[in-house]
């Protein structure tokens, strides 16, 4: 089985939105679990070498979440709300606490490509092009690429 | 004491955002309570003649809310998450269940004008200009204007 390992990160031309797509060797249900189950999410999110400690995680419509990523004595905390958790899509808010006034509205869905492959679609909406371009210029693609590579391994392990 | 009773509803030129401003004869703390306390919010939100039944309401960072507005046998339900509840601002998600795939990210803050007057600033962000213009064309200004007029009366009553 082969998967396209490259992640696509695309800035929308008209609205302050970033779109991410990435194919995985998994079913939609497995990708859903990897994004909503606390113990699974902690294993793959973020760049290499990060240790994620989940502070709280209530993956239901109306629930909320917070986690702290640690590496080399540095801590990076994130929190948000789960606006919608359904098999069709996940809608959640996202704040990096280093920029406490910033907030993104994220939507994720999982497109079944057949043959045990699924395309993850994620979009992240903010309220200005300045905020969107700061996000794109933050080096976030390293964390996204390395995180998804860890997710590939987790899916291959059979633990999801 | 006089207040400017007119509400300003403005579409941003560059991003799919609506900005609302309205002055009230109140302190910022009173406006904060009117927006976050379940029993107060139910008394003023929405157009005239609506009866609001709060289904759930947990006004803390990470909490969530849902209410059903009823008039003449018709029901309109809304729900969302409270991403941030702080004296500085409220950040919440908003879905009208008649359009279940639609979601807005709302931010509200209260500017102290002095002399017992406060300016409410609200912005509502969606992910396309089509969705924003559908919202603007939905007749929502009637509900906003009538709701704020009810809020004027509630504030004048001394119950907030």
Strand order of the largest sheet of chain A: 1-2-8-7-6-5-4-3
Residue-averaged pLDDT of chain A, rounded? 95
Number of domains of chain A: 1
What's the helix count of chain A?
Answer: 4
**Based on the structure, what is the oligomeric state of the protein chains?**
homodimer
Shape of chain A: globular
At CATH's second level, what is the architecture of chain A? 2-Layer Sandwich
Termini gap of chain A: 18 Å
Give the C-level CATH assignment of chain A: Alpha Beta
Secondary structure blueprint with pairings:
The structure is a homodimer of 160-residue chains.
Chain A: E1 8-11, E2 17-24, H1 28-36, H2 38-44, E3 51-57, E4 64-71, E5 74-85, E6 90-96, E7 104-114, E8 117-125, H3 129-136, H4 140-156
Antiparallel strand pairs in A: 1-2, 2-8, 3-4, 4-5, 5-6, 6-7, 7-8
Helix pairs in contact in A: 1-2
Give a quick precis of the structure.
2 copies of one chain form a homodimer. Helices cover 26% and strands 41% of the residues of chain A.
Description:
Two copies of one chain form a homodimer. Chain A has a single domain, classed as 2-Layer Sandwich (Alpha-D-Glucose-1,6-Bisphosphate, Chain A, domain 4). Chain A is about 25% helix and about 40% strand. In chain A, helix 1 crosses helix 2 (about 40-45). Chain A contains four helices and eight strands, in the order E-E-H-H-E-E-E-E-E-E-H-H. The mean pLDDT of chain A is about 95. Chain A has about 160 residues and is an alpha+beta fold. In chain A, strand 1 and strand 2 form a beta hairpin. The interface of A and B includes residues 66 and 103 of A.
């Amino acid at each position: 089985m082969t998967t396209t390992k490259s992640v696509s990160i695309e800035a929308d031309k008209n609205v302050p939105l970033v779109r991410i797509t990435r194919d995985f060797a998994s079913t939609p249900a497995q990708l859903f679990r990897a994004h909503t189950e606390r113990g699974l999410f902690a294993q793959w999110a973020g760049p290499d070498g990060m240790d994620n400690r989940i502070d709280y995680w209530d993956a239901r419509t109306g629930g909320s979440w917070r986690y702290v990523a640690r590496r080399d004595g540095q801590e990076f905390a994130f929190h948000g709300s789960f606006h919608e958790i359904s098999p069709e899509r996940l809608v959640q808010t996202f704040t990096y606490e280093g920029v406490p006034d910033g907030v993104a509205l994220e939507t994720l869905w999982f497109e079944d490509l057949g043959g045990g492959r699924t395309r993850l679609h994620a979009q992240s909406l903010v309220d200005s092009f300045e905020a969107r371009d700061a996000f794109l210029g933050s080096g976030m693609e390293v964390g996204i690429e390395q995180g998804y590579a860890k997710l590939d391994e987790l899916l291959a392990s059979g633990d999801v």
